[in-house]
Automatic annotation (TrEMBL):
GO MF annotations, alphabetized: monoacylglycerol lipase activity; phosphatidylcholine lysophospholipase activity
GO terms, biological process: monoacylglycerol catabolic process; phosphatidylserine catabolic process
Domain (Serine aminopeptidase S33): residue spans on this chain: 10-124
InterPro entries on file: AB_hydrolase_fold, Hydrolase_4
Organism whose genome encodes this protein: Cervus elaphus hippelaphus (European red deer)
Name of the protein: Serine aminopeptidase S33 domain-containing protein
Listed GO CC annotations: endoplasmic reticulum membrane
Amino acid sequence: MDDLIGNMYAVLSNGGFHVLSVDYRGFGDSTGTPTEDGLTADAVCVYEWTKARSGPTPVCLWGHSLGTGVATNAAKVLEEKGFPADAIILEAPFTNIWVASINYPLLKIYRKLPGFLRSVMDSLRKDKLVFPNDENVKFLSSPLLIIHGEDDKTVPLEFGKKLYEIAHNAYRNKERVKMVIFPPGFRHNSLCKSSALLHIVRDFLSQQWA
């Protein structure tokens, strides 16, 4: 487990939240091959398993970076089943994996190479990877909190802002959508180090679940 991701789990757990996390297919202790459909199915299964055992306690879907795509995919499936997620928190989200890949800092170096853009698109299309956060949020009704670091260089803040704009425009109840931008210093992986994080999360969830 990545130390920074583990730190987020620790912060939430120490803050009074129960945290359940599983390894992606093909990673850690999980077997299989990671595919978008497979990761989505796994997330839905974990959510439903947890919800069935949580009693009156609400369950929140939390996704970070690539995980935001898994979270919104799962949320859309739950919405279509008629059982929307109790809440969704997206940490450093992108609009969709195509845009995120093309704008990933290390890839920008190669964007001017002949055929590079087409190669990336063909690869994503072949593997059927989309993770369309920008499309998924149009169909959601669950309370949605987007958190993003101002100095995130991996998934630039502009993507989080764009996703918030799309969601806010699509939601009938605008009060269910909120975005919080963290000041410079936390970048892509360190929002867990912010002393304001727990207060922001608690405040949002308490208002939505009141």
